[in-house]
Every structure is written in structure tokens, then in C-alpha cells.
Amino acid sequence: MRVLGVDPGLTRCGVGVVEGVAGRPLTMLGVGVVRTAADADIGVRLVGIERGIEEWLDRFEPELVAVERVFAQHNVRTVMGTAQASAVAMLCASRRGIPVALHTPSEVKAAVTGSGRADKAQVGAMVTRLLRLSAPPKPADAADALALAICHIWRAPAQNRLQQAVAQNRLQQAVARHQAAQQQASAPQQATTPHQASAVKGRTR
User: Fold this and answer.
1) Of 27, 117, 143, 181, which is most buried, counting CB atoms within 10 Å of its CB?
2) pTM of the model as a whole
3) How many CA atoms within 13 Å lie on the side-chain side of 94?
4) Are 28 and 17 a contacting pair, CB within 8 Å?
């Protein structure tokens, strides 16, 4: 599986491509940052992020794009910019028919380091170790993008099993409802005797 991880941000949008399967060594194919000028118009910045992500999609042709799920922060301006960059990444992938997966920061940290409260230095160190790199990717946004890709590759088998179990359960419920409806439809209607009809008629008067 080849996954493009995207750590969304307006000024620095981390991107990283990882290839492999769960349980086996993973390989980094590329890592970098899509940058935009902080003093540029928001529309221009979003177009710049779009072009940057499109270039990565053209170059590496990933099977899936993993994006960090936006969560509430005290700085509303920061979370808005993150959400806008995240939307651009999802749009670029969806326009090409590439599936998109969202992972929270705590999910990524837990998958890569074993702790959902790990700091950026710990995440960078584990990414370096897992991908057998000579040094942690810089800046931290790039390391976070690789961590997103690693997280999805490792979590995908479990998620697929869960989705299959849910689908199987829904199928069983649908079959049970269908069988119950058929039994009810095929059940013989109870005949009404003249005495019963007279009693019913009497009660309705």
C-alpha cells in the first residue's frame, strides 16, 4: 500500500509518502513541505497548496491519502487555516477518485509511539527509526505527514476487519427482517366464525 500523508497547514503543509504493509518494514518514498507566504491572500495560498499536493499526487500516485483530522484549538484563526488546507487535500484526492482517511493527532501518536500524548520530538524520533532514516525529517510538519501515512498503513487491516464485521452484522439483520416479513405474509389468516362476527358487530354498536 502506498499512502500520501498530509499534515495540513496554510504556511507549512507537510507531505510524505510511505509504502508497505502492516507487520513488515516500511519505506519512505518522499517527504517535504508545501509552503505559502503568510502575507498572501487566503485564496492565493489555497491555490498554492492545491498545486503542491497535485504535484505530489502526480509524482507518487498514492493509493490513499491520509489527512490529519482537524480538532478544536484555542486559536480559532489557526484551526480555520488548518481546516481549509485539510479540505484542499481531500478535494485533490477525491477529484482523482483516491480514497481519503482521517486520523486524529492522538491516534497517530499512539500508533507510532505507543502513547497518544507523545510530543513532536518523540514522533520524529520514532518515524526516523521506523523508516530507517539517517536523521529526523525537518520541519516537524514533514515528520507528522510521514507519521500519518505510517498510522494508516498499520491501522488499515484492523479497520477493514471492523468494517467487514459491521457489514456482515447489517446483512444478517436484513436477512432476519426479510425472513420475518415472509413468515408474517405467508401465515394463514384466522377465519371469523358467524358467532365471532356477531360478537364483534355487537361491540361496535
Assistant:
1) 143
2) 0.76
3) 9
4) yes
Which residues are known to be catalytic? 7, 68, 141
Residue 89 C-alpha cell reads as: 487535500
Would you put residue 127 in left (φ > 0), alpha (ψ -120 to 50) or beta? alpha
Q: How far apart are CA 153 and CA 148, in angstroms?
A: 9
Confidence of residue 75 (pLDDT cuts 50, 70, 90): confident
Q: Report the percentage of the chain scoring pLDDT > 90.
A: 69
Residue extents of the structural domains in the chain: 2-161
Read off the pLDDT of residues 118-157 as tens digits, 9 standing for 90 and up. 999 999 999 999 999 999 999 999 999 999 999 999 998 5
In what order do the strands lie in the sheet containing 27-35?
Answer: 27-35, 12-19, 2-7, 64-68, 100-103
Cell reading at 137: 525529517
Q: What is the per-residue pLDDT for 203? A: 54
Q: Where does residue 122 rank: exposed (0-12), middle (13-18), buried (19+ CB within 10 A)?
A: middle
Question: Per the annotation, does 141 bind a ligand?
Answer: yes
Please check if 41 is assigned to a binding site: no
Q: Is 7 annotated as a binding residue?
A: yes
